[in-house]
Write a structure and sequence with these properties.
2 copies of one chain form a homodimer. With 374 residues, chain A is α/β, with parallel strands linked by helices. Chain A has 3 domains: 250 residues, Metallo-dependent phosphatases (Purple Acid Phosphatase, chain A, domain 2), CATH 3.60.21.10; 57 residues, no CATH class; 47 residues. The first copy, chain A, is 33% helix and 21% strand. In chain A, the strands form 5 sheets. Chain A has a 6-stranded mixed beta sheet. In chain A, strands 7-8-9-12-13 form a 5-stranded mixed beta sheet, with no helix packed on it. In chain A, strand 17, helix 9 and strand 18 form a beta-alpha-beta unit. In chain A, helix 10 runs antiparallel to helix 11 and helix 11 crosses helix 12. The longest helix of chain A is centred in the C-terminal third of the chain and has 23 residues. Chains A and B meet through helix 2 and helix 4 of A and helix 2 and helix 4 of B.
């Protein structure tokens, strides 16, 4: 069979205050086209359907409509799990009815032990879960981390492998290729090796499809760029063919891209430069100037209406940040002044300035003592 | 056919801070028994499934479980509309799938124009809606009130009446038997006459089954007492038989009743009295004493752990309230004092007191002037 693997939809997401629902609907329109033109047999969504555990009515309306279109109008089987952003309980509403039309929505850890056979595939659906749930299920409070929990669960899943079927895991977690000590939030990573017994693993959680390099254990990434840090990532979905044992990445084109503009203020705040930029994009701006620029953000908005962020790479504020990061507390007052002056002005104090500073410092000391004595 | 008419479940409701979910589950257990033993063909819920537009996870879990039991396990057709307490959008989740198993969940005003034929009945489902929705639908901004909107909608429904079927309306609104100027919240009442073309009208909104006296246009009321003002109401559901054209009220027994105790403090705060009261009930207490009673609530809780409210019918606070309600601003200071004294002490000022009060008043006037002049 052929299925599309996507994840981390984050429906209802706001980007620096901008409501992304129109962008999301536009990208789902493309997804529907792909599902039809590529003759796909099923859609897999590996968690984080919603951006928030209590989504807005707007987000719920859009999601309900989309899922009904896919499952009831297009008659497409859906395999959807909850992610850490979803409320398992809220998302679960209706799931018992959805089964009847091959819309498998699973929100409980134990769902993975009741695989769903569809076509030539056995789907194991393991939603996002917390360590305590595994401890309770295995009645073992000594399970140290999610990795150990996954080991135990995968063993139980393996025991249910039908030899004539392909075995596909859908899950939402942080899987790592060796960097054991790396942690995303409070989650310890799952060793990719634990999952290698499956024929394909459809992962959700990390937003970058390149977050893990593995031939058949893959993150799909988000369908859209959801932060400035994702500006240079390619977004899309995996088309998985279980017969040919291939997976092909199909890119999705955003309605409004995220673009980062980097350079001198005078250059970026010019009509000539702005003309080359898609004005409807979400824009992140990184200014290299060192001097103070009054009303920079306000002026830039005239060229770029949807600015997400203005960053001063070498500006006063960055210098101050760099300055503060040095160990300052051991400096004598005069050294402190000299360092500050050099950082802000990019030049040393002259001898005259140094003499003047010394005198001023002595004077202020005296005043200070007087004030204290008074 | 035979169906049960219920409404105003308010799942997730809290009563003076007490979570009612256990009481609600207990009463739904009775409802399930009735549905089975009375060989009922369908269940009608006339709005306010939830108590809040954004219900808690606990409330959602309980509701999802209950509805799945009724519709999928007991194979019972369900006819459910949204009420003013529900979020139409949130409640609607899954509704397109529910249709397949005869679970008709309608949250849009226009749903009433697509009646559902089941057995010998045509069900017209008209959820709670706002006047503006009717104005928009009829493209007539001059529709003055809900009553006019209902008139127009009922006309359109009547045009769809199948002559071989019974016509049953399920709706959630304030229907009145003549008292045109009475209003519940901002809602003007619907004239009961508009609805008399139906064979039965299953109403939700008012919590008392006796809120409207009509042979076949009925409120079911809530399945439980949801406020102290409902303490003396009988709660239950209507069993409607469309063949025999009868409706029978079946009472539901609460796990914990609401009881109001009224009398002298010393009597109510006694073991002898408390023994006659079910200690697990929710208790409202009305004390008739006039004197101040220190720590009354605290002392009473030793006898009645779940006190909802303590009311002093003749106590100091009630006297003050009564006192304030009189027109006081026209009284001279001495009259004001005399009235206050009499209200609080239940006796008039003596002559000596009156003389003393006069002197004190004169004295304070003088002081006041001095202070002002200073």
């Amino acid at each position: 069979m052929r299925f599309i693997h996507t994840a981390d939809w984050h429906i209802g997401k706001k980007l620096h205050g901008y409501d992304l629902i129109e962008d999301q609907l536009a990208v789902f329109l493309q997804l529907k086209e792909i599902l039809c033109t590529k003759k796909v047999d099923a859609l897999v969504v590996a968690g984080d359907v919603y951006d928030q555990s209590v989504p807005s009515e707007k987000a719920i309306k859009a999601t309900n409509h989309l899922l009904a279109q896919l499952n009831l109008d297009l008659k497409l089987p859906l395999f959807v799990i909850s992610g850490n952003h979803d409320s398992a309980v809220r998302l679960d509403t209706g799931s018992k009815w959805f089964d009847y039309t091959h819309f498998y929505l699973k929100t409980q850890m134990t769902a993975c032990l009741e695989p769903i056979v569809y076509d030539d595939v056995q789907f194991f659906m393991l939603p996002y879960f917390k360590l305590q749930e595994a401890k309770n299920y295995f009645n073992d409070q000594n399970i140290v981390d999610l990795n150990s929990a996954f080991e135990l669960l995968v063993k139980q899943m393996q025991a249910k492998f039908l030899p004539t079927k392909k075995h596909i895991l859908i899950t939402h977690c942080f899987v790592s290729n060796g960097l054991k000590d790396l942690e995303v939030g409070t989650q310890s990573p799952i060793d990719v090796k634990i999952l290698e017994c499956f024929d394909y693993v459809a992962l959700g959680h990390l937003h970058n499809k390149n977050a893990l390099k593995h031939p058949y254990i893959k993150y799909s990434g988000t369908p859209l760029k959801y932060s400035l840090s994702e500006a240079n990532q390619t977004k899309g979905v995996w088309l998985v063919d279980t017969t040919k044992e291939t997976c092909e990445f199909i890119t999705l084109k955003p309605k409004h891209d995220i673009t980062i503009l980097k350079g001198e203020y005078a250059q970026i705040a010019s009509l000539e430069y702005a003309k080359k930029v898609n004005s409807t994009d979400y824009i992140g701006i990184e200014i290299t100037d060192t001097k103070v620029i009054p009303n920079a953000l306000e002026n830039l908005r005239q060229y770029y209406p949807k600015i997400l962020n203005l960053k001063r790479l070498n500006g006063h504020e960055m210098l101050l940040t760099n300055f503060k990061q040095k160990t300052l507390k051991h400096l004598e007052p005069l050294e402190l002044l000299a360092t500050f002056f050099e950082d802000v002005n990019q030049q040393k104090l002259t001898n005259d300035q140094l003499v003047w500073a010394k005198e001023a410092l002595e004077q202020s000391k005296g005043e200070s003592y007087e004030t204290t004595d008074a």
